[in-house]
Amino acid sequence: MKASLLALLPALWAAPALAQHAGHPDHDMSAMPGMSAPTAKPPSAADPHAGHDIGMGAEAMGPPPLPDHQTAPPTTPTDYLADKVFSPAEMERARAQLRREHGGARASQVMANLLEYRAQSGGDGYHWDGEAWFGGDFNRLVIKSEGEGDRHGVETGEIQALYSRPVGVYTDLQVGLRQDVEPKSRTYATVGFETLLPYWIEASGAVFVSNKGDVLARAEGAIDWRLTQRLILQPRTELNFAAQEVPATATGSGLSNGELGLRLRYEIRRTFAPYVGVSWSRRFGRTADFARLRGDDVSETSFVLGLRAWF
Q1: Does residue 245 fall inside a structural domain?
Q2: Taking the complete model, does pTM exceed 0.90, yes or no?
Q3: Cβ(255)–Cβ(275) under 8 Å?
Q4: In 19-152, which ranges are E strands?
């Protein structure tokens, strides 16, 4: 009996070590005296997770790779299931209407950017600048008008009819005709653009070639500084250029005139905003010389009261 108990002592001594090793399957049991590594059981073919590494890193669980942007888009399907149930002609009309309502719709807008009364030393006057457009996302007809005058009538006035089409992000190319009504009736071929620059700067420019061979150019820019949700401060500038001297319109070559304005408007509604401000304008070069010969001021400072509206 004593001999049997003595024979069990080594087994009882090794039992705690074997129990501790059961929680660490990656330990090499073959390194223990008298122990051999267990034979690995091959994964079962029916086990869908056989051979998977459950210890994979977080990067292996990330989103799938993005598609290659150079890959051509899939072709538009033509085998519509609804055509097998309903009239194909009726379904085509329904799909055309859906395309018009989701990107192909026609819209319009009429906007008075500036419609103002000007109080100035040489005599009070008025000024307007507005446009209207009709069309879709890609093809539009744009009508623009700009001018100014005083109690004696219109001093300068023009109207433009343009075809507008996007050529880039936030950029439209515009081509058409410009007709001046004052100071001389002239017709110009027009090529211009409208764009939105960083920091929400609205910019536009155009080149005009008249039926007399005169070449003019114009650059405009404006930005809205939103002081509150309804109170907006707008700096605005306009520069006019001429490639040659045009005595008939009292225009000199180079930079002929420019205007810089600062207007503070209050949007009673987004579509209806009265404003007050100040505008400074000046003639340059030979254009200033023509003004002096007529007895006009070379520069003017005006206090303005106006309305900005659209519908």
Answers
A1: yes
A2: no
A3: no
A4: 107-119, 125-135, 140-150
